[in-house]
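FIELD: query
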Amino acid sequence: MRIPSVFQLTLTPFTVLIIAACGANSAEDASRNGSSAASSGSAAGTLPAPRGPTRPLPDGAVMLQRVNIIDPGVIAAGTAMTALVPHGWSTHGGVVPGVGLCSDPYGVDWTATSADGLSSISIFPTEVWQTSSTGLRSDCREASFASAREYLEARVAQAFPDAQVQEYRDRPDFAQSAREMARQTQAMAQQMGLSMSVKAEGGEVLFTYRQGGTAMRGVLGVSAVFYMSSLMNPMGGPPLTSLNASTQGTFAATAPDGQLDIELVEASRRSILPNAEWLAQLFALQNKLGGIAVQGTRERAAIIVAGGAAATKANIESFQIASGANRTGASGELYPGEASSDRMQRASIEAVRGVDTYLDPVNNSPVQLDHSYGNAWRVSNQDAYILTKDPNFNPGQYGIEATRMQVVK
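FIELD: result
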C-alpha cells in the first residue's frame, strides 16, 4: 500500500554544482578601449574551434565556456538549462526520466569532466524517501534521514565507499527558496488541522578518497525538504509518526588533492540557468498533473537554480532575460521599459544566486556571472567568459581576444 502525501512536491527542484579550473586575463592596450589586442583570425560569421590560453593563467582568474544541459524529450526536447564549465572540459548526460512511482517525472544525471579525467562534477537525480511507525508500506525508498547532514554522509558512503568525511558545513543559501516553500506548506497543513512540521535544509560535506593511486578530495552538497507528521495512536502509546523527504538537488565535485578550488566551484555552480521555454513546458506539465500538490506549488518553485533562486510563473521572464533570450531594444537599454517591480525581481534573483548581471557585448544581451570575482570579460568568437579578481588583467598576454563587460545597474 502506498502512503499518499498531498504535500510531496510533484516536481522537485534541484541545485547544481560545477567545478572550474581554468582562467584568463585582460589586456593593457585593450583596457583602454575595452577589448584585447589579440586577433582571432577567424572569418566573419564563423566560430573557430574553442581555443584556450597560450600559457597558464594566474591565480584568481578563470575561463569558463557555456554548455547546454539537454533534455531528450522527458519534459521537452532541447536545452533544459545552460552552464559555464572550465574551458576544455567535456560533458555528458542530461535530463532523465523519473524511476519508480515515488520519483519525480524528471531528474538530472549530468557530468562534466576535465581533459585528464581526474576532475569532475556530477549532478544526481532527486531522491525521495519515507519512514513511518504506522506499519503502512510505501512505494518510496525506506530511509530515515532527517537532516541534510545525515543524507549527505550516507550518500558519500554510497558513491565513494572508501571515502572519509572531513567536514560538514551548513549551506542555508542552497535551500533559501525551498525554505519559503516549506513555510507555505506548513501553513497550509496548519489550516487543514494537520500536525506537520516542514523544514528545508542545505549543506555540504568535504571528503577524501583515493582514485587508483591518486589522493582525491571532493565536495557533496544538497538541498532537501523534510515533512514530519504525527498522529494519535488509537491503540494508545507513543504517537504514530512519519517522515517524508526529498532532495531538491544533489551535486558532487571531485579533484586531485590540492586542486579542488571552492571559489571556482561556486562560480560555475552559480552560472546555471534554466531555459525559459523549457520551464514553460514544465509548468504546462504541472497543470496537467493536477492535485493538491500542484495547486499548492504551481505558482512557486518548479526548479531551484543553483544558489537557491526559484523559477516560478511570476519570475519566468526574469530568467528569460538573464539567459539572454531577450535582446536590447532600439533605445539601447538592456531592460527597455523594465518596471520597478521587474527590476526588484531581477535584483532579488541576483542576491539569492550570488551573481552580477553584465552586458554581453557580443550578443548584446545580459549574462549573470559570479559576483565574487568583480571583473568579467567576454571572449571573442567563443561562447566563453573570463572572470578575474584583478582589474588590470590583460587577456592579450595569454593569447586571448576578449572584451571587458560592464555590470548592469
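FIELD: remark
Confidence is low (pLDDT under 50) at residues 1-48, 291-302, 326-337.
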